[in-house]
Design a protein that fits this description.
The chain has 75 residues and is mainly alpha-helical. The protein is built from two helices and no strands. It has one domain. It is rod-shaped, with a radius of gyration of 19 Å.
Length: 75
């Protein structure tokens, strides 16, 4: 599974958890705490995926530039 698909999957999961918390204010506090923790972990994962995706794009541009005989960063 690619980074874009993983990002989409976890964005949906995060949205579902937020929706459940908003729709059910009487959820057990311990359960709410677990859900908030899961949302925070998903946020961190999404930031990591974003960083990895940017790195992947940057590396692809550098490889492309090398193939054309250009210096990286100059297009």
């Amino acid at each position: 599974m690619g980074l874009v698909q993983l990002k989409t999957l976890y964005e949906k999961r995060r949205a579902n958890l937020v929706s459940l918390l908003e729709k059910n204010p009487k959820i057990d506090p311990a359960r709410q705490h677990q859900m908030y923790g899961a949302i925070c972990e998903i946020d961190i994962l999404l930031k990591t995926i974003g960083h990895l995706r940017e790195q992947e794009i940057r590396e692809n541009l550098e490889l492309e530039a090398k193939g054309k005989g250009e210096k990286p960063g100059k297009t």
